[in-house]
Design a protein that fits this description.
83 residues, 54% helix, 4 helices, mainly alpha, elongated
């Protein structure tokens, strides 16, 4: 799953087709042949990306102040519950 910036046939889409990976990348508006993509799945990707952007607003999480993984995960849980 990616945004419109990765709508490059030779560099991205053809490589994904060779590996039998379904690309959920919307086509650019100036593309001559518009292709199909799963709009519902792309909507979920957008919501998750927005959640991570909100999570990065917390300074302790963005800079990872905590040394231990368990403490860092606790900070993520706390920020996620506030969000």
């Amino acid at each position: 799953m990616a945004d419109k910036a990765y709508d490059a046939a030779e560099r991205v889409l053809d490589l994904l087709d060779q590996k039998a990976v379904k690309a959920v990348i919307p086509p650019k508006s100036n593309r001559t042949q518009q292709r199909e993509y799963d709009e519902d799945m792309y909507t979920w990707r957008h919501l998750i990306e927005n959640f991570f952007q909100k999570l990065k607003q917390y300074r302790a999480i963005a800079t990872r102040y905590d040394k231990r993984a368990s403490t860092f995960l606790g900070a993520i849980y706390m920020a996620a519950s506030v969000i």
